[in-house]
Amino acid sequence: MTQGTSAQATIGDSEFDRDTAVTLREPGVYDTELSAGWTIINAVNGGYLLAVIGRALGQALPHPDPFTVSAHYLTASQPGPAVIRTETVRSGRTLSTGQASLFQYDEEGREVERIRVLASYGDLDALPDDVRTSAALPAIPPVDQCFGPQDAPAPIKGSTAITDRLWLKLDPATLGWALGAPSGKGEMRSWFGLADGRDADPLSLLLAVDALPPTAFELGIQGWVPTVELTVHVRCRPAPGPLRIAISTRNLAGGFLEEDAEVWDSADRLVAQSRQLARTPLGR
Amino acid sequence: MTQGTSAQATIGDSEFDRDTAVTLREPGVYDTELSAGWTIINAVNGGYLLAVIGRALGQALPHPDPFTVSAHYLTASQPGPAVIRTETVRSGRTLSTGQASLFQYDEEGREVERIRVLASYGDLDALPDDVRTSAALPAIPPVDQCFGPQDAPAPIKGSTAITDRLWLKLDPATLGWALGAPSGKGEMRSWFGLADGRDADPLSLLLAVDALPPTAFELGIQGWVPTVELTVHVRCRPAPGPLRIAISTRNLAGGFLEEDAEVWDSADRLVAQSRQLARTPLGR
């Protein structure tokens, strides 16, 4: 994997790990600091937020790995301090279910809820090896035929702090929007990694599913596409090396659209699936 | 629509409405009686349960229609009394978000939580008419070339009470399992209605996404496929007349599978999308 760094970061010692760290305040309650490094324009990325909450739930629940995480986004998060309050809903033998809310503070210091999450956790390493899949690897050209924000002559519209922390190489077939000629197809495909070379783990998959430019760009829609709800299934612990992500939108209607993401690892396994419901920008 | 009844039931006056009715006990708390009429073998259907909870949330929240509903299934529900406790998490101008839990009672009368739900509600009739969809109608043959449980010489394995309340006409291309010759493809397609002729509404769409035989049957897997998590997006108020439902599984691995459902109405509009994570039966 060539992500342009010489000293490669590792799982547990990387920008992503530091910026998603949580500190136990009291049983089930975790303090954190949302980093300005994972913002798009001024919005904190929804996948990054999910990874922060996912880390807190992994510490609070008896099982370590997110299997299915459903998040409803309530109000826009800002960089700065936040608190995550978790509840263990059910502890089973192979799965446990938890709930978490992320709060920030208003001018009077009162808690304002940003996101509420339900999640079921398990142990990915305890799963059997059976695979009976009909899913096919996304058709993404080799890395050297793909393009990232760093390859653009000028900053790509909509790119901001988060692009410095990601290694993205987008399929040129889904880059029409960046050249003013969106394809009209609701598709986005990319190679994906963290810029400091840290390999993927289940928590960074929660980031990955929401880290590409929105499919709406390829539908000719500009502006912010705020997530209403995002559900991620983590199906397998990702192998070291780059990920491939394919996002598609089939139905834009009534001011809303769905975005489905598939994440594949370097061993050609489908490691995560997600779907979100998002709003189209007003007036478009 | 020919569903074999002469006196057609209507929205508000039907088996489905009576069996999903909830009674206000105190603000935000609703009593209900889970009907034995919506069971598969001895399990209460997960989509029926979601419709009951969805009705309670529609009464508790300031907006009437489910837009996105995420349910985590905790313990198996039984026919009989239940209580639904709701919380209004956020009330916005166009969307409100709520939480609900359905409880039943153990032998000592203590509440046992069955399902926990996060949901965002809105007003389907207030949405703009824009549609920019690439989704295609499922290829299901005409009704008279499809088959339902009533067409089988003997009761189809796995069919039980719920089949008397549904009008299902399955695409023969996805019926191999019923003849002992599953196709190996994770697909199930059917015409869908309620047996008493009641038309679809947003609440019955919550039932519809989980009412077909599981795709696992066509993958050669028998037995119960319990849902861990199910998220439904309702995208449009369905027109009167029969629905068409297509379910697909792309990835069966590690003892879990996803089931994606699309529901189309008689006006050829994609009215609901869902995805669930389910467990494959043990030992298969």
UniProtKB/TrEMBL annotation, chains A, B:
Name of this chain's protein: Thioesterase-like superfamily protein
Acyl-CoA thioesterase-like C-terminal domain ranges (all copies): 160-278
Upper taxonomic lineage: Bacteria, Bacillati, Actinomycetota, Actinomycetes, Kitasatosporales
UniProt cross-references to InterPro entries, sorted A to Z: ACOT8-like_C (IPR049450), Acyl-CoA_hotdog (IPR042171), HotDog_dom_sf (IPR029069), Sec_Metab_Biosynth-Assoc (IPR052389), TesB_ACOT8-like_N (IPR049449)
Pfam families to which the protein is assigned, alphabetical: 4HBT_3, 4HBT_3C
Gene3D superfamilies: Acyl-CoA thioesterase, double hotdog domain
Stretches assigned to the Acyl-CoA thioesterase-like N-terminal HotDog domain: 35-120
